Amino acid sequence: xxxxxxxxxxxxxxxxxxxxxxxxxxxxxxxxxxxxxxxxxxxxxxxxxxxxxxxxxxxxxxxxxxxxx
Length: 69
Known about the structure:
- It is a single chain.
- The protein is built from one helix and two strands; from the N terminus they run E-E-H.
- With about 70 residues, the protein is α+β, with helices and mostly antiparallel strands.
- The chain has one domain (about 5-35, about 45-65).
- The chain has a two-stranded antiparallel ribbon.
- The mean pLDDT is about 90.
């Protein structure tokens, strides 16, 4: 997010930032997932902290529960 566009994360999002190795604050949407082969992941941008990984997992599970899965 550019500073002028900063906002609080919505219920389906988690905020990632410099603690996760990113230069800018980034909203991670947890309601739309894509799968990719591990070999396709070639550029590492950072490492998501364990606390944020838990938040992401929680938001994904909440989204699946709302979808009835």
